Amino acid sequence: MLTNCDNFRDMGGIKTHDGHVLKEKKIIRSGKLSDLNDDDVVFLEKYGLKHDVDFRSMSERKNEPDRIPASVSYHFAPVFPVDETRSGNDKWESRRNYYVDEQAAFKDMLDAYNDIVLQDCAKKAYREFFDVLLANDKDDESVLFHCSAGKDRTGMGAVYLLTVLGVDETVIRADYLASNKYLRGQQKKEEVRALQKGEIFAKNIFNLGSVSEHYLDCALGTMAREYGSLGEYLEKELKLSANEQEDLRKIYLK
């Protein structure tokens, strides 16, 4: 495993509703890759990594560029022009409402999840993600997709992929919420720092640094309201055809 990367996990082993299983060493999700050490880079090379899909914004990429093996193809697919989830933002202290409204960050996150569904740049990014997944059709080669914390933009990418592969909604939801377990150490560090500025501020920082069923339900509700369902969203907005969905199942399931 990587020593300097939060929320790193191989998605292999997840089961579909019809008894298939996701292959190991084919699809990986994680947080930012900028802090990898030399051993981490070697680990990824030996692991068979061939594609790195970066969902972060231009400024996030510029400030903390990925460290990856030279043999890996890098794909820049920004979900937002700027980081609406603020996972990579260290200027929370400047947001005055975070000191007086304990729901301020929660509302910001709901807005971000609406935009993940509705914004054209987000649709373009996730379509590029699926293009890379479809091209990764050789055995023992893997795709890694990430943002800053690996929980929101990455989390929705995982929701889309697992839905296409036929994984039950309860399992998809559990995989999404698992980011809270993988990020617990980072969350505690942020809590200690945030409490110095008051409990309301700390509550907002917690909401920024974690995932919630409310966030996921917001995105799914927006899809249902605007497009009919998650499945219709994938087909109509991300232009993922029935044949492409079947190809993805052939590539990633056993």
From TrEMBL:
Pfam families recorded: Y_phosphatase3
InterPro entries, alphabetized: Prot-tyrosine_phosphatase-like, Tyr/Ser_Pase_IphP-type, Tyr_Pase_AS
Tree of life domain: Bacteria
A molecular function GO annotation: phosphoprotein phosphatase activity
Gene3D superfamilies registered for this protein in UniProt: Protein tyrosine phosphatase superfamily
PANTHER family the UniProt entry points to: TYROSINE SPECIFIC PROTEIN PHOSPHATASES DOMAIN-CONTAINING PROTEIN (PTHR31126:SF1), TYROSINE-PROTEIN PHOSPHATASE (PTHR31126)
Family: Belongs to the protein-tyrosine phosphatase family.
Name this protein carries in UniProt: Protein-tyrosine-phosphatase
Organism, as annotated: Ligilactobacillus ruminis ATCC 25644
Lineage: Bacteria, Bacillati, Bacillota, Bacilli, Lactobacillales
